[in-house]
Amino acid sequence: xxxxxxxxxxFFLFSFFIGFSQWAFSQELITGKDSASYxxxxxxxxxxKASELPxxxxxxxxxxxxxxxxxxxxxxxxxxxxDIITSYIAKAxxxxxxxxxxxxxxxxxxxxxxxxxxxxxTGKAAIDKMESPQLKQLAMALFSGKYDKxxxxxxxxxxxxxxTLGQExxxxxxxxxxxxxxxxxxxxxxxxxxxxxxxPGKEADLLIPNWNRRAPDSTKPDKDPAGWGIKRQVxxxxxxANIIDVEGYDGLAYISYYVDEPGKQxxxxxxxxxxxxxxxxDLAKNNDKDWNQLIDNAIYPVIDAVGKHIQIAYPAExxxxxxxxxxxxxxxxxxxxxxxxxxLLGLIxxxxxxxxxxxxxxxxxxxxxxDGDGVAYMGTDPGNAMALVVDPVRVVKGDPCWGFSHEVGxxxxxxxxxxxxxxxxxxxxxFSLYGTTSFGNKSRISEQKNYQKARDSIISRKxxxxxxxxxxxxxxxxxxxxxxxxxxxxxxxxxxxxFEAFRxxxxxxxxxxxxxxxxxxxxxxxxxxPAPYQLNFVKTACEVSKTDLTDFFDQYxxxxxxxxxFGDYGNYKYELTQEMxxxxxxxIKAMNLPQPKVDLTKLEx
Length: 605
Ligand SMILES: [Zn+2]
Description:
Blueprint: H1 5-19, H2 21-26, H3 32-50, H4 58-69, H5 81-92, E1 94-95, H6 101-107, H7 124-128, H8 133-143, E2 153-156, E3 159-160, H9 162-169, E4 180-186, E5 189-196, E6 205-209, E7 232-236, E8 240-246, E9 251-256, E10 258-259, E11 268-272, E12 276-277, E13 280-282, H10 288-297, E14 302-306, E15 310-315, H11 316-323, H12 327-344, E16 358-363, E17 368-371, E18 374-378, H13 386-390, H14 392-395, H15 398-411, H16 428-438, H17 444-447, H18 450-459, H19 471-486, H20 494-512, H21 531-545, H22 550-555, E19 562-567, E20 571-576, H23 578-590
Parallel strand pairs: 1-7, 3-10, 13-14, 15-16, 16-18
Antiparallel strand pairs: 2-11, 4-9, 4-12, 5-8, 5-11, 6-7, 6-9, 14-15, 17-18, 19-20
Helix pairs in contact: 1-3, 1-4, 10-11, 12-16, 15-16, 18-19, 20-21, 21-23
Bound molecules: zinc ion.
């Protein structure tokens, strides 16, 4: 996946080019440098245009560009740059429509601001005179006693911001941004939503993502100029009446109400006056009969379902075909796969399991992928993945089990403590192996003979594991630690304890930074050189397991002294000196720990 910082890079480059646009219009492209510069400008501008950035203050951003090029002190803290840009873009994409006086007048006929009942003296004549078609329809239904409030009137608890969760757990912000499932469908057109409970200084939005978005050329769905990500309409909510003008595409509504301390926040009350009810499935409240009713009666092609750790937005048709009568089983299986990762991460042992969920959604661009919004699966041919990810029996078997665990594993990578340069497609697979083998699937690294390959390639050639290009070979030492401690090492909490130790290290490091501020977004900075994190891993693994693992790590080149460069979602320069290696060896020796009972490098599953 691409990181948000790419956008920031473009942002500054683009600013630079706009600032010097006078030059661009008046000069010819003479040298190779001129042409290349021009080409970069065009390419950057195109990608910025596609990203739909809101208008900028040219002078201010030119000043930012110059500050960087002239190495001047920045007027904004480097660590805050990303957050500022992200929140500016988020604010700019919000839509708000002025509420007319006739809506205010009509609302006076109801007893409460949420318009759940009519004033006793509101009669048929007064209703006939109402001007807002939405409120008039509501008043008629209330008057005749035929208003069904189910889904239309609901309470929404605040959720912990995914970025804040990411900082607490030292993972990314990959948890769901769509937790406020409403079960209400909004066709294109004008709708009225009444809200109460937004406290001063807090923000709540109504989101309408386009789950049904298709690529313009259905034969090349992955070549979509709009990209693969979620396109959505965002409406800022205020207490009282909100006009929701749905334009371009219809969709299911979600309340986005994310805060830093959800426990301290009173819930929102929302009345969707005239959306239509699609409904949703909640594992905590519903059974398979409800599930069938939901997919039989859905008025939008996609349905929402939510479990303890997962939420899905899948086509009703696929659910009917592959999971009819099996909603409970489907959501339970997904929950179990996420639960296993929480277990390995030590979130259960250390009472840190988030209330947040991970989103799995349908998409119409690509087979299976993960982005900042969760996991996405293809809903049509070519590359239809629905049979694999909707049938509850198949979800925990083979490729779908691996795929889901792999992608959710990315969401849970601890950065940088167990995701330094070179582990991008490695440390998430500790979770994939744990998830798939826990469900009785064969170990992928065993089937692919990576144990032998790693011995031949890394141990025999005396290279550093990071110099092996096969991500599965690089995974071997990390999984052999699990095999040993789950078996002969008799310490099944090895990884849970190790992850907790890393979280403590991360918190201590953050607290020591200026003012203890949260500087790294959800992601810790991986730095350029993986070696310090690698040595920290070695040392902490010995500490936590109370075992001297020096020889084991030595064989896989964790003490490899030297320099080399490599790529892993960015460029890295490995640099480990004799001094660094000696220091770590000495620190482990000073712990006076027993040797492991067996040679870990021989372990296989
Ligand atoms: Zn991956």
